[in-house]
Amino acid sequence: MRAFLTGATGSVGREVYRALRGRSVEVRIAARNSRAVADVLPGASDVVTFDFGAPSISPTQFEEVDAFFFMTPLIETQVSAALRVLNAAIEAGVPHIVRLSSRAAGWDERSKLRDWQREVDDAVRESGAGWTILRPCSFLQNFIHYQAEAIRTMSSIIVPQGDGLIPYIDALDIGEAASECLMSPVDHQGQTYVLTGGRAYGVKGVAAEIGRIIHKPLTYIDVEEAQARDMMLQAGTPPWLVEAGLAVFAHAKAGGEAAVDPTLTQIIGRPATSLSEFVERNRDAWT
Ligand SMILES: NC(=O)c1ccc[n+]([C@@H]2O[C@H](COP(=O)([O-])OP(=O)(O)OC[C@H]3O[C@@H](n4cnc5c(N)ncnc54)[C@H](OP(=O)(O)O)[C@@H]3O)[C@@H](O)[C@H]2O)c1
């Protein structure tokens, strides 16, 4: 079997790649930068040049592909870009698509990003191919990508989340779940799966655990939403992405993000990676 992989250098994509290769599946990586692929996934051989921003996508890239891992990068033109890619895959006759969406697409009616994600999810459902949609909640990796600098320089995690709880999920687990859905399409066809970690944490709890493992006490700074908005905009985050992030923090603060869903464990056949396991594995990211 051959899988076609977008976002292979990203948090989830690299884990989908590792999980598939661990089960001897052939993987075609679609990437805009082959050097980045070589750095992140040494040994990857079937790499095609692919850019979501390209004016057209050739169906030939999808030739002899049995399953397609379909993430969309966080760009403003993601709907038109994703639809071009989807059409090329359908024209080539790809039989099954595993689409990376987000849990917030199930409730957030306020942010453009979630409208865009729902639009692409619906297009996948109506495409005529088999499909599985994955809707994970907030990634544990966010504490690396968005908080590592504050942890290193200020011994702090700074977010507007109050005492709200989230069952953060490890991208490694999403990768395993995606690979399972790619490899066993009949078992997962037509399903929209909400994926979460096994236990919900507040930011105070996450700060305590990272601090314990890196031997540095961390403080949770619970800022107001307006201050968080200013900080994100100043850091260069586009406004539509800022608003989508703030919606999740506000939802968590109001208690709406705390639910743990058992689906991940049912798909991967083991418990979700724990917070401690994740922090141990990535301890160098914060020091
Ligand atoms: N973070 C969360 O808490 C969370 C929660 C739920 C859902 N999600 C969803 O997860 C998705 C992001 O996944 P991720 O975190 O694995 O991604 P990521 O780590 O942000 O990586 C983005 C990937 O997309 C590729 N990419 C970016 N622009 C591209 C372009 N124009 N053409 C081709 N490839 C391009 C990047 O490749 P390069 O090497 O070329 O940069 C990279 O492989 C988003 O759709 C987000 O909504 C995130």
Explain this structure.
The chain has 287 residues and is an alpha/beta fold. It has a domain of 172 residues: 3-Layer(aba) Sandwich (Rossmann fold). Strands 3-2-1-4-5-6-8 form a seven-stranded parallel sheet, with helices on both faces. Strands 7-9 form a two-stranded parallel sheet. Strand 5, helix 4 and strand 6 form a beta-alpha-beta unit. The longest helix is centred in the last third of the chain and has 15 residues. It is globular, with a radius of gyration of 19 Å. The chain binds NADP nicotinamide-adenine-dinucleotide phosphate.
Short description:
Helix content is 43%, strand content 15%. The chain is α/β, with parallel strands linked by helices and 287 residues long.
Notable traits:
287 residues; alpha/beta; Rossmann fold; two-stranded parallel sheet; 13 helices; 9 strands; 43% helix; binds NADP nicotinamide-adenine-dinucleotide phosphate
The set of bound ligands, ions and cofactors reads: NADP nicotinamide-adenine-dinucleotide phosphate
Tally of strands: 9
The coarse silhouette is globular
Query: Which blocks of ≥5 consecutive residues have pLDDT under 50?
Result: none
